[in-house]
Amino acid sequence: MMEIVKVGMADYKVLKTSGILTTLGLGSCVGIALYDKYSKVAGLAHIMLPSSLEIKNNSNKAKFADTAIVELIKEMKLIGANENKLVAKLAGGSQMFSFNSNTDILRIGERNVLASKKVLQELSIPILSEDTGGNYGRTIELSVTDGNLLVKTVGHGTKNI
Q1: Rounded CA separation 56/38 (Å)
Q2: Is CATH 3.30.1330.200 correct for 4-160?
Q3: Residue 35: pLDDT above 80?
Q4: Which keywords appear in this protein's UniProt record, sorted alphabetically (predicted)?
Q5: Is the pTM of this model over 0.85?
Q6: How confident is the model at residue 106 (pLDDT cuts 50, 70, 90)?
Q7: Which end of the chain has fewer CB within 10 Å, C or N?
Q8: Are 113 and 106 within 8 A, CB to CB?
C-alpha cells in the first residue's frame, strides 16, 4: 500500500522514492510542492503567512513563505535532493471571504502566493504550474513517484497540475 503522509497547517514534510504528500483545506494558505525528479525527492509545505519578518512570534519556520521554503529545501537535501534540480508547483492562496476594503491585511491569500513566488525566484527554482486564487478551498496530493500535483476542490473539480 502506498504511504500517505499528511502535512498539517504551518508544517512541511519530505519523502523519497514513493508515496504521497497531502495537505487538506488550503484556503488563503499556500501549498508549496518541491520536486527533484532525478533523486525522486519531494517536499510539501503548507504556509499560512507571507513573511516571518512581520510577526513577533515567528519561531515556527514552517508557517511563513520566506522561511518554510528554505527549511524544506534543507530537509530535501538531507535525503538526496539536488537544489539545482528542484521544480515547484503552487496551490491555494484563495480570497476566502469578500471584504469591502482593499487593505493588504485582508488579501492574505494573494500575499502568500506573491511571497512564495518571490522566494522561489530568489532561489532560482522554476514554477512549473500553479492553481492559486479564487474563493474556494483546495486539498492537494503530491506524488513522489512522478511529481504530479493533484488539486481537489469542492465545486471546481479535480485536476493534475
Answers
A1: 39
A2: yes
A3: yes
A4: Chemotaxis, Hydrolase
A5: yes
A6: low
A7: N
A8: no
CA 99 and chain centroid, separation: 25
- Of the candidates 29, 81, 86, 91, the residue annotated as catalytic is 29
User: Does the annotation mark 29 as catalytic?
Assistant: yes
In the chain, what are the helix, strand and coil shares in percent, each to the nearest 5? 25, 35, 40
Q: Count CB neighbours of 47 within 10 A.
A: 30
Model pLDDT, residue 1: 74
C-alpha pair distances (Å), 112 with each of 71, 117, 131, 155, 158:
17, 9, 13, 23, 22
Q: Which residue has the cell 476566502?
A: 96
